[in-house]
User: What shape does this take?
Amino acid sequence: MDMRVLRSRGDGIHPASSEISEAEARDGWTWTDVVAGPDDLGDLMTLTAEMELDAVAVRDAVEEYGLPKVDDFGHHLLVILHGIREDLIGTAQVDCFLTDRKLVTVRSSESPAINALWARLSESADLASGGADQLLARLADGLTRHLLAVVDAFDDGVESLVEKALTADPGLLEELTEVRSHFASIRRVALPQRETLDMLRQSPSHLIGATARRRFSDAFDVATRATQGLESARTALAEILDAYQGAEARKATSVTTVLTIYAAIMLPLSLIAGFFGMNFPNIPGFRNDMGWIITTALMVVIAVGSLAVFVAAGWIRRPARRRVGGKVGRRMIEVAKAPVGVASAVYEVATVPLRPSTWKRRSGSGPIE
Assistant: This one.
């Protein structure tokens, strides 16, 4: 089990000992961040025993997967949130236990949002103000902004996908399948997280003050944008797939048209060649030295005339050349790894690998006050 502790005091925010004691949190807040798995349950139960956290909730934090939610146990709250993973496009669970002056976060994997907030708190004494409830609100905002950053990255890269769809790029289907899979994992938690933040911004619990509720309200607005963006992205992916299928059908039709026209031109030529190729001595022009020249000229005239008729009828058009735009950005996994500035917490989310395609991030992550 890996653990680290930050404690705020009047002179700023400092690393603290690994023990959780009321004396340490008396004049500020204490944040204990724990990375633990099922094998670490005993150590985690010992660590949280003094806080009298719900034993079942602590056990579930390392043994079960849970969607975002809020449980009120009176003297402490359990808030389950999700953020983007560091190693892939998907979400990771963070169980947050909030008391009057303490915040304990339990997770099983690395979290870019938590790491960025931790680093920012260690550097900025200005963030020492407020209680543990405001710290939780900052964390909720950071986790949610990472979800939104992936949506923004898709929005910036969607035009490239449209270009590929209109040209029936054969690699597009694999790319769309992967993007839809990434978004499906995020959509599963986006709406529950929005509802959780809605509950927190209206929570009657004495553990959440008015300032923290305003911060949760800001995070709720970000979650609303993320859920709306995910629905829009889902619609856009379906439309891109329809456009690809239409372009592919048009391409197949064009190929069929060319082959049909080619066959229509060759048919009368084959008829002439077959007629004069019959092995009879009384064929017209059989003994004429100019016969093959006359026949060949006739075949050329018929071929050119047929081609001219097809062009005049609009069956043949000059093919339009389309330039396919550049690659879709730099890759969605960088969004997960990107630093998230917090102090007023501006999230500078870079970009992430998906596979060959990439998503460039918009500058849409706003500050956390």
